Amino acid sequence: MGGLFIKTNVFPPINSEVIIKLYPPHSFNPIELTGRVVHIIDEEKAKKMGKEPGFGVEFLDMDEEKKSVIEAIINHFKKLETTVYGRRRCPRMPYETEVHIKMGKAIVPGKTLDISLLGAYIVVPKRDLPIGKEFEAIFFRVGNSKEVSVKIRIVHFLEDKKAKEFGKEEGYGVEFVELPQEAYIEIYKMMERWVI
Question: Model pTM?
Fold first, then answer.
């Protein structure tokens, strides 16, 4: 267990050192690891390989204690994994809150039906939100956090008939591109209570 792959569209230079914070299960205090960037898969390479963009990191300060924590994290999330639209993803928990999606000067109001550490499903009035496009969204409540600004990416659209097959309303599945740490922790706490 010498490293990990981080999915992102931000690529640090090869051989640069990065600090990585990982949250153990049932804890909100991260462990810190130092790593060296050993390879990069940019968006062009990712498309050719059928993978997601990101970069690989080799740990520089691994010890037995940190190794056991990482194994606990991996095992914890393996238990949470589920199949969604043919891909293995973190499960989504039913959760409703008001959301405003910013489109330039316009505001698109909506609400979430479910949420996870990776994204959410948002019900909105029928609008043309392009797949793959990124927007700023204001989530009025995430656990105990209020009016959280999150960068989202539109992943898919479910029209009314298809949405009803999944017990949903017409809307968009979105991926979190930039999720503030306090919101991540709030979702994590809610997910633990929901799963347990």
Answer: 0.58
